[in-house]
Amino acid sequence: MTTLATLARRRWAPFALAIIVALPSLPAGFMIDDWFQRMVLRGEHPRGGPLDLFTFADGDPAHMEPFIRNGPFPWFTLPSVKLRFFRPLSSLLVAADFHLFGDQAWLAHLHSIAWYLALIAVVGALYRRLLGNVAWLALLIFALDDSHAMPVDWLANRNALVASTFAWAGLWAHLRWREDGWAPGRVLSVLGFGVGLFAGEVTIAASAYLLAYELVGRRDAPRLRVLAMVPTLLALVGFVALYRSMNAGAYGSATYVDPSNDPDTFLIGAPTRFLALFGGWWFGPLQEVWMFAPPLRKVLIATGALSLLAAPFVWRWSTCDPQQRDPLSWLALGSIGALLPGLATFPSARLLTAPSLGLCALVAVMAHAAWSHRARFVGKAALAYLILNFAIQPLITWVTMPLGLRAMAELTREGTVDKPQPPLTGRVVILSAGDFMPCFYGVPVLAEAHRPMPKSWLPLSLAPHAHRVTRTASDRFELEVVGGAMLTTVFEQNVRNDAHPLPAGSRVDLEDLDIEVLADDEGKPTRLGVHLKRGEAEFQWVVWDGWQFQPSGLPAVGQTLELPRAPLAIEVLTKAW
Predict the structure, then answer these.
(1) Taking the CB of residue 227, how many other CB atoms lie within 10 A of it?
(2) Given this model, what pLDDT does residue 576 score?
(3) Burial letters for 340-350: b for 16+ Cβ neighbours within 10 Å, e otherwise?
(4) Lowest mean pLDDT across 10-14, 31-35, 247-251, 551-555
(5) Which residues pair with 83 in a beta bridge?
(6) What's the CA gap between 311 and 305, in Å, rounded?
(7) How far apart are the two ends of the chain, measured CA to CA in Å?
(8) What backbone phi and psi angles, to 5 degrees, belong to 124?
(9) What Å distances lie between residue 343 and 86, 150, 230, 258, 322, CA to CA?
(10) Which of 162, 168, 433, 475 has CB 3.0 to 4.6 Å from 532, enough for a Cys bridge?
(11) Model pTM?
(12) Contact indicator for 174, 229 with CB cutoff of 8 Å
């Protein structure tokens, strides 16, 4: 018989587990977009503010061109590229961290952990209402789920935790209104989703559960179900209208696709991205190979296809309890719906925060069924799979991810701030890099270290290949990608998609250089001609060698300089470990 003391311990266990897995994030520090946001808050960037920290490019060529002509955006950036996300509440929370905690990143990470505990509390209330005797297990699985690691570890991704917390508090209020007749629930539901929308677009994905509940989780008249959905739908429509009026969204990027502006591109890429996300959930954190190991994308897509084929059989085997089948039906439908907004960007485990509400419930029911059949081979095999994929592997991810993120950030900082001699203060020209972090974030890293800013910051190539520099005249040289092309990686395509190619003959004039594309591979540059507008000595020529920015210089006229392929940060850290 379960005692009250045992029940109390069970109630606290998911919170204790969440704290344990989140604690390694405390020393993770600032990284990537955090550097940029802090630069804005210090007043060292001309655009943005405390309520607008997620605007990286606003789509106005007049605003973008100075950042292309002098850096730090690379020369191939589309002047009209737009990467603007309207998240005023999350921006305000980042600004609060900045003003309250200063450079003490661990306090900001403690703030993120507090939001994770709030999310656990809200999800626990939902699970106890819906899942009966497996609610506690489902919440443990949710607390341990490694798709939450990035939102906890990375301060700029905290918006996913904040948005989900408010959205699912709204879902809980909606259920109380619909099932218990609790009148305040109707207003609180809309309020929860409304506040969540101002925290992040994840709320749109999270709202899929409310729609799924009304579609398949209710048995009353269709008219009543439609009327129950109307307030939330109006909130979503109103937010989308506000989003558009604020000029938020994406344009010109292959990494972020706005379905309303570019539906064809979204629909073409959606099936493979869906399979990649779905397959990665059931077979560990494989989604990250999309970014770091493109040759393995087909394997990731295949895991998604296999998971979909197996889903009906697993559902029939796991959902034996009729009382659980109804809530699981709409939770499963909601999790599929919650996957769809994430298809607007490249597959990553962090996109599974909203789908995890339903998927963790399904895993808990699978675990309960496997335990019930543990005497049989199928039960033993299912238990082994579930323990490996939803217990051991997540623990490894929670421990290693903040270490890896901090190591990558430290590698970028040391290689940009501490090691380069002379310091990077002149007209910096990066001949080749292959790693996006030092190129895209070198200037914010220097600003974070309170170092003098370079006069200009001009990355020429981020292609992860060897390069060849050929001097053709005293004021001209050619830069060739050996065995590859530019604009092929996720981060290069973040600022220019395939709809805006750069074929041979394309020209881009910078403040200090003129660049002409001399050769291309289907619109992706393979060889550049560079004309110097200043003397060679006025530039600081560097390459990123995988560890730091190294001085390079140009070859003599008529001579060639071979630049070897620089290892990516993940390769450097793997070798170091």
Answers:
(1) 11
(2) 59
(3) bbbbbbbbbbb
(4) 10-14
(5) 57, 250
(6) 10
(7) 49
(8) -60, -40
(9) 18, 18, 25, 10, 33
(10) 475
(11) 0.92
(12) no
